[in-house]
Amino acid sequence: MHPMMKYIREGTLPTFYCPGCGIGTIQNLFFHAIDELGRDPKTIGVVCGIGCSGLTLSPFFKADTLHTTHGRPIAFATGLKVARPEMEVVVVSGDGDLAGIGGNHLIHAARRNIGLKVFCVNNRIYGNTGGQVAPTTPYGVKTVTTPYGNPEYQFNLAELVAAAGSCYVARWTTDQPVALLNSMKKAFRLRGFSFVEIVSQCPTQYGRRVGLENPIQFLRYFREKSVRYQPEKAEEIRKNLKEDEILVGEFIHRERKELTENLKWLIEEQGGKKE
Ligand SMILES: Cc1ncc(C[n+]2csc(CCOP(=O)(O)OP(=O)(O)O)c2C)c(N)n1
Ligand SMILES: [Mg+2]
After folding, report:
1. Which ligand sits closest to the CA of 51?
2. Is ligand 1 within 6 A of the CB of residue 103?
3. Can you give the pTM of this predicted structure?
4. Ligand 1 touching residue 135 (CB < 6 A)
5. Residues measured by CB to lie within 5 Å of ligand 2, the ion
6. Does 1.10.3720.10 match the CATH number of domain 20-270?
7. Backbone angles phi, psi at 74, to 5 degrees
8. Which of 12, 97, 236, 242 is 20 to 30 A from 75 in CA distance terms?
9. pLDDT of amino acid 269
10. 80 and 87 in contact (C-beta within 8 Å)?
11. Cis peptide before 85 (omega within 30 of 0)
């Protein structure tokens, strides 16, 4: 038996993903991350949104997985973390779910520094619903809803969440599995809000519209276009970054007191006091 099968809920394989989808790599890395950390799935609560990426861990992961509504996994996860602060609460969902309809929840969770581990699968499109434009779709790309090319500019998710106050922010593509695995593990070790943006290939809905319908070719594209972030050269790297290049690396790693710790202090230390 495959060593990761112990984490898979019976009857859920094979997955329903298109051939060459990046989500398989992400599932594999997630299971390796908890395995290497020796985590008991009973201590992890997973909250999922709607979309192909929203299904990364639900129904597959044999743990408490809460499948919620489109755009709302962070809101549900906030409730879970506040009610059960000892749980490690993980949110896995897509760019459309977390940054489109759910964008406000994302930035406020980062600002509050609630201890969620958010893994955002950014395939730059609404994949599940047939390839509509997302707030992460690059300028000029043709989608179902932008047949003449996207007239808008995309969000830089990692920088958005870093500016909002996240304790840990990293971005990798599915072509950097070891670095991505390490970032997932780091997110598990940290108490505060952690955000890992995973730029992933969607050969079916995104790739075929930009000439990357072959998944191998897609991964090669990620390799060629990835530029490694170095904090000591941040300004120079950002200045020289081309429109189509992908800045990858760890952008933020800082400690701040986490929201449920602040709430505990409020209840225990201040709860009995009255003005
Ligand atoms: C309130 C609501 N609006 C719209 C939808 C339709 N819908 C389902 S998934 C989705 C987009 C998902 O995109 P993303 O989060 O990027 O996931 P992907 O499928 O690309 O992995 C949309 C618009 C919905 N289910 N609920
Ligand atoms: Mg998407």
Report:
1. 1
2. no
3. 0.97
4. no
5. 94-96, 123, 127
6. no
7. -70, -35
8. 12
9. 86
10. yes
11. no
| β-strand partners of 248 | 228
Ligand 1 contact via 23 beta carbon (within 6 Å): no
Query: Which ligand is in closest contact with the Cα of 101?
Result: 1
* Host H or E run for residue 161: helix 157-164
CA distances from 181 to 25, 148, 203 (A): 10, 38, 22
CB-based burial, 34-48: b 16+ in 10 Å, e otherwise: beeeebebeebbbbb
pLDDT recorded at residue 61: 98
Closest ligand 1 atom to the C-alpha of 205?
20
What's the pLDDT tens digit per position in 60-98?
A: 999 999 999 999 999 999 999 999 999 999 999 999 999
Q: Which of 23, 128, 136 to mutate to test ligand 1, by most ligand atoms within 8 A of the CB atom?
A: 128
Helix or strand (DSSP H, E) at 195: strand 194-199
Atom nearest to 122 CA in ligand 1: 16
In single-letter form, the type of residue at position 46 comes to V
